[in-house]
Amino acid sequence: MPQEKRPKKLLDQMRDVLHTQHDSIRTEAAYVDWAKRCMLFHQKRHPKDMGRVEIEACLTHLAVDRHVAASTQNQALSALLFLSKAVLHKNLSRGLP
């Protein structure tokens, strides 16, 4: 009986898309890390079940509680929008900073 091939995990899918777009290894690592951090911030919720409100909450946490620089917050936003658009095929960019 042939084994069914399990679909790749979300972060592996994200790595694949970044790799096929020829992004640098450092960009790949940073984007995957931001996606992971956001999922952990939301108690391991899957990003497909998150929307604009959850992304805004994660970014607000970075700015208010973690006191990150604006450029760091922008990188996190870019990573989360990339995950939504390129991997999950959801468009969340309307209304985000």
Number of domains: 1
- End-to-end separation in angstroms reads 51 Å
Q: Under CATH, the topology is which?
A: DNA polymerase, domain 1
CATH class: Mainly Alpha
Q: What Rg, in angstroms, do the CA atoms define?
A: 14 Å
Number of strands: 0
Shape: globular
Helix % is 55-70%
The second-level CATH architecture is: Orthogonal Bundle
**Largest sheet properties:** none
Write structural notes for this entry.
- The chain is 61% helix and 0% strand.
- It is an all-alpha fold and 97 residues long.
- It has a single domain, classed as DNA polymerase, domain 1, CATH 1.10.150.130.
- Helix 1 runs antiparallel to helix 2 and helix 3 runs antiparallel to helix 4 (70-87).
- The longest helix has 18 residues, at 70-87.
- The model has no long low-confidence stretch (mean pLDDT 92).
